[in-house]
Amino acid sequence: MTVSRSPHSTTSPAKPVDANEPWMRELHADTGYLLYRLGLRSGQLFNSALQESGMRLRHYALLRYLATVDGAPQRKLSTALGYDPSAIVGLVDDLERLGLVERRPAPGDRRTRIVVLTDKGGAHLRDSDEMSHRITDELTAPLSAEERETLHALLLRVAHP
Question: Which residues of 91-110 are buried (b: 16+ CB within 10 A; e: fewer)?
């Protein structure tokens, strides 16, 4: 049971959070809030599953992106994934330490370094993909196969208008 305290009260706990409370019904009527909660839950499940390997969802996303290109400069990774450039440096450093990516001179421009997925990174990504499918199945368990396809199609439209 989740109990929260009112910021104005220091002695007694507030009522348990209840989906039948009017404020909760109003909050659940907000699609943006529901997407936010789903994103949080998804991130928590992914991060928990990835924890053993020393990775987080951001690492997985970077590996997933690198699997679709023949290497990319860090600035392109930042733009493509929507991460701050300073965060990309740390993520690449982490993945490089694990032997999952490496920095190489860019073809045709030795001054530029690109980040490339290693064979070990590809194998790790395949294992992580299996975990990703399990988590997605868990998140979408209440939906039929057709509803899952519809949800995916709708999310693609919203994510990439």
Answer: bbebbeebebbbeeeeeeee
Q: Which token pair is 88?
A: 């990309």
CB neighbour list of residue 17: distance below 8 Å, 6 or more residues apart: 2, 4, 24
| Total length of the chain | 161
CA pair distance 39, 85, nearest whole angstrom: 22
Q: Per-residue confidence at 18, pLDDT binned at 50, 70, 90?
A: low
pTM of the model: 0.74
- Token pair 């599953």 is at which residue? 49
Question: Mean pLDDT, to the nearest integer, of 28-42?
Answer: 87
Amino acid at 89: V
Cα(93)–Cα(113) distance, integer angstroms: 13
Tell whether the model's pLDDT for residue 112 goes beyond 80. yes
